[in-house]
Amino acid sequence: MTKDIFRVPLVAWHDYDALRALIAEAPSTHHEWAERFRKRSLEERRLGHIVREMHVDPHKFAAYARLKGYATNFEALEHFLVETDPHS
Q1: Residue 84 CB contacts under 8 Å (≥ 6 apart), including other chains
Q2: What angle do CA 78, 83, 86 make, to 5 degrees?
Q3: CA 68, 2, 43 angle in degrees (round to 5)?
Q4: Tens of pLDDT along 7-54?
Q5: Cα(25)–Cα(50) distance, rounded to whole angstroms?
Q6: Where are the domains of the chain?
Q7: Both ends of the chain: CA-CA distance in Å?
Q8: 3-state DSSP call for residue 51?
Q9: Which of 12, 35, 39, 64 is 20 to 30 A (C-alpha) from 29?
Q10: pTM
Q11: How far apart are CA 33 and CA 38, in angstroms?
């Protein structure tokens, strides 16, 4: 049986403004971002899913989106996390 995987995009506080410049729908503060994904992680674990925390470098994400022709949004971030997950 394959378990669903939820990849948590961790962003350093000093990189958050750069990420926010890329993802318009991102919360206004790093604290809100962290809290959103903390709550989501708890829910995913409760559902029995695997939770993987993955650090996101905004510059690498931007380069990935450019290379793939993606807009920089949450959907592209999800693709980035899947494709860069060293455990997949």
Answers
A1: 54, 60, 64
A2: 115
A3: 80
A4: 999 999 999 999 999 999 999 999 999 999 999 999 999 999 999 999
A5: 25
A6: 5-84
A7: 16
A8: strand
A9: 64
A10: 0.90
A11: 9
